[in-house]
Each structure stands twice: as C-alpha cells, then as structure tokens.
Amino acid sequence: QYIAENRKLIVKIDSQQADLFISSKVFEVQVKDLHPIVSQPWKPTKPNPKQADVLGMDNFFLVVDKNDTRVNLLRTISRKMGYQVIALKTAEKALDMLKLQPEKFRMIVVYKDFDGMKPDELIENAVAIKHTIPIVVETGYRDLSKLKEYSTKFMNIKSVHIKPVVLDDFQATIRQLVN
User: Fold this and answer.
1) Which run of H or of E encompasses 171?
2) Which of 22, 68, 100, 115 sits in a 20 to 30 Å window from 43, CA-based?
3) Is the dihedral of CA 123, 127, 133, 134 positive or negative?
C-alpha cells in the first residue's frame, strides 16, 4: 500500500508492479484499484444505457407546426420521455436545420397546415435527406380527405406515418417509432 503525500488517497499496487511504481514519477493505475481512506472500497457505477442515450446529441424531435399550444403539449410529453423538441413554424427553416444536422433528430412531427411550402413537399425533402427518420404527419381529426391523400401518397415509404391526431397516444407513438 502506498499513501499519497496529502494522505487522502491509498493506492494498492500489484506486487509485480511495485518496483516500477516506486521508480517512476508517473504510473498508470487502474481506477478500480483506488480506494478512499474510509475503509469501504469505492465501487464504480456503470452508466444506465437509457440515461446515456438521453444525454446523447441525437435526442431531439423536429416539430413543424404554427400552433404554439400543440407544440407545448408535444414538448411536455417528449420531455417526460427524455427527448427535446425543436419547434419551427415554417418548412424551409425545418429543412435547413435537418440538412445541417440530420443525425441530431430521432423523429419529425409535421402538422398539415403551416406557412411556406406544402407538407408533402417537406416530407419528400426530409425523406431525401434522411430516409430512416420516422416522420409523423398529423392530418387533423375531421379532415378525412388529407388523411386519404397522404396515406395514398406515402404508402410506399415506411418511415412516414399518417395520424389524424398526433397527441392521441403520442407516448405510444414515440415508443413504437423511436425506442
């Protein structure tokens, strides 16, 4: 056993490496061999994979919607599940952000009505940028024509999911598409 000069650290060195430790000024010591002066050994904790994923840089949803109330509800639900929401009101800004950092986003949520280009153009461009990202398109509860139009147009693209109301079972949607 070796005690540091400040007497706050005890280092246990394998007997085969003791001479090398004594003769060197700098010696690589495994962290698991360090113990605090208190007689209990320090036990390193392994990171929880879910916590590590939450801290990652790819934990964002891109929401394109001009309705602040709906965006705040999506943000609240997403935050409870460990995700952050970047909400934009125009498709052009959303595409610019997606082009700059496509790996940052785990899912895109698009409402049927927003300023700028049409939602189907946004979806096509987003699929062209990153075809594996899930895109949830909200058509509105009573707008069956949009539901039918988008379902027909995007039925061959597995990453595009059409829903009448995104907020209905949004947590289940996240679990199904992202987790």
Assistant:
1) helix 170-177
2) 22
3) positive
Instruction: Return the structure tokens found at 124.
Output: 């096509």
Residue (of 141, 178, 131, 134) closest to 163 by Cα position: 141
Structure tokens at 38: 């208190």
DSSP line for 52-66: HHHTSTT-EEEEE-S
Q: Are strands 9-11 and 34-36 parallel, antiparallel or unpaired?
A: antiparallel
For 6, residues 6+ apart whose C-beta sits below 8 A from its C-beta are none
Q: What's this model's pTM, rounded to 2 decimal places?
A: 0.64
Q: What are phi and psi of 159, to 5 degrees?
A: -80, -10
90 burial (CB, 10 Å; 0-12 / 13-18 / 19+) is middle
In the numeric block, which tokens belong to residue 171? 């947590």
Residue type, 174: I
pLDDT, tens only, 48-78? 444 444 444 678 999 998 889 989 999 999 9
